[in-house]
Design a protein that fits this description.
Elements lengths: L2 H13 L2 H8 L3 H15 L4 E4 L2 E4 L1 H28 L4 E7 L1 H18 L3 E7 L2 H9 L5 E5 L8 E10 L1 E5 L9 E3 L7 E5 L4 H13 L4 E6 L2 H9 L5 E3 L12 E7 L3 E9 L5 H12 L1 H6 L5
Parallel strand pairs: 3-4, 3-5, 8-12, 9-10
Antiparallel strand pairs: 1-2, 5-13, 6-13, 7-11, 7-12
């Protein structure tokens, strides 16, 4: 029993004669007859009654046709899905990312990707760097988007996308808002809004100020950069922040200024140590295609 025999049987049952089945399959009548004979032998029961060189389907054939039709439809679905996967039009991607990138970078990339790949399903989880790395190592997600500050994890493959540099967020009427670049010594005495202790960026910022040799006054701590930036917007304090935060604030209320000494890191794609699927490679291409716009906005350098 083979696929061609199944197709000949279905054609015969659909069109009612060997002649019409041959026309539908674009093959000769003798070929159809041979395929039907072979198929009947392989199933082990009579499919046709034969009178004056004409075939008539038996009741068993009528019953069996429904099963054959389901099998053919299933095979066509396999073919369709195979073509869709080969053309990067079918599959799924599970993404874990730090909240700042979910709120800014990813939403635009996903929207554009879905226009080109409407049948690819995507799930997004916002989590801290530690949670993202855990999800990758335990295969709970396929791709991660985050920063590379002091990252050391042998189980995760890191593909840098672009470099970012910390900025100082402050209200537009702040005394330092007129500066293009701000040395951290100018920030003495300011109220700071900071990420919670344990964040890789917070750890790096703490280290820079320890080197500077003076403590900063922390007014509020928040878990996400969205929270921090919104508090700056409300004049609670200033913040040393990821530059992507500038995409979340009202630019009529908050400005972002370059900070020295520079605090830099890579925005990167994190994966398990394996080859990316075709659809994942396509998503990576969309991530990279978005970078020029992010450079124009000052989020990456």
């Amino acid at each position: 029993m083979n696929l061609r025999e199944l197709e000949s049987f279905n054609a015969f049952m659909t069109y009612g004669s060997v002649t019409k089945a041959a026309q539908a399959m674009n093959i000769s009548q003798p070929m159809v007859s041979r395929l039907l004979n072979n198929f009947e032998k392989s199933v082990g029961f009579e499919l046709f009654s034969r009178k004056r060189n004409q075939l008539t389907a038996t009741s068993e054939a009528q019953q069996f046709h429904a099963t054959v039709l389901r099998s053919l439809n299933a095979f066509r679905e396999v073919e369709t899905q195979a073509r869709a996967i080969a053309n990067e039009q079918l599959g799924s991607i599970r993404i874990a990312a730090q909240p700042i990138y979910v709120d800014t970078y990813l939403i635009d990339v996903v929207a554009k990707f879905k226009q080109a790949h409407p049948n690819v399903s995507i799930s997004i989880t916002d989590t801290g760097l530690e949670g993202m790395l855990d999800m990758i190592s335990t295969r709970q997600c396929d791709l991660g988007i985050g920063i590379t500050l002091d990252l050391q994890d042998p189980n995760v493959l890191v593909t840098p996308l672009a470099q970012s540099r910390a900025v100082c967020l402050m209200p537009v009427d702040h005394r330092l808002a007129g500066f293009e670049t701000i040395d951290i010594d100018l920030l003495r005495g300011e109220n700071f809004v900071e990420l919670s202790i344990g964040s890789p960026l917070r750890t790096k910022i703490d280290y820079i100020f320890q080197i500077a040799g003076w403590p900063r006054k922390i007014a509020v701590e928040g878990r996400t950069i969205r929270t921090v930036s919104r508090l700056v917007e409300r004049n609670v304090g200033i913040a040393v922040s990821d530059p992507f935060a500038a995409l979340l604030v009202d630019n009529s209320k908050v400005v972002a200024r370059t900070l020295t000494p520079a605090i830099e890191w890579d925005v990167a794609l994190f994966t398990a140590s394996r080859e990316l699927s075709a659809v994942e490679k396509s998503f990576l291409a969309f991530l990279r295609a978005e970078l020029p716009r992010l450079r124009e906005s000052g989020c990456v350098i």
